[in-house]
Specification:
Layout lengths: L18 E7 L5 H15 L6 H18 L15 E7 L3 E8 L21 H8 L2 E6 L7 E8 L7
Antiparallel strand pairs: 1-2, 2-3, 3-5, 4-5
Helix pairs in contact: 1-2, 2-3
Length: 161
Amino acid sequence: MLEPLRQGLPPLDPAAVSSAASCALPARYEAVREARQFTRRTLDQWDMGDRFDDVCLVVSELVTNALRHALPANTPRVPDQNPPVRLHLMRWTERLVCAVRDPSHDSPIARAAEDDFSAESGRGLFLVDSFADSWGWHPLAGTLGGKVVWALFLLQPQIAE
């Protein structure tokens, strides 16, 4: 069901971004709660609170995957000076993109839909695929090592009253 993940972000004109926000997340599992709170505040500021449930679920899964699978085993799980994971929220007129940057070069691995759904974990990317309109990942270049995993939500155009 899930297509190969090594694809680029859909073409979006960076100059057309109407709003953008990001936050650094430390290497500890409490960062998932911090990401949800950041997402709530940001969507409320953008008057998009009605999209919170779907977007928050996707953000939670992307951040959890970054913390669980993308950090080296010896990464300290305490606050540090250089948080290894970063959440970006970007809004265009008809699109919202959630992107999570992490230091790993490994591609995300999605389990097949027919895998054991009674398992405690392993369904994160399946949920992302189910709730977002599209998603993918791409490696970072230059001095920024790692990758970005993103999810795109299509928005209804605002109708002037």
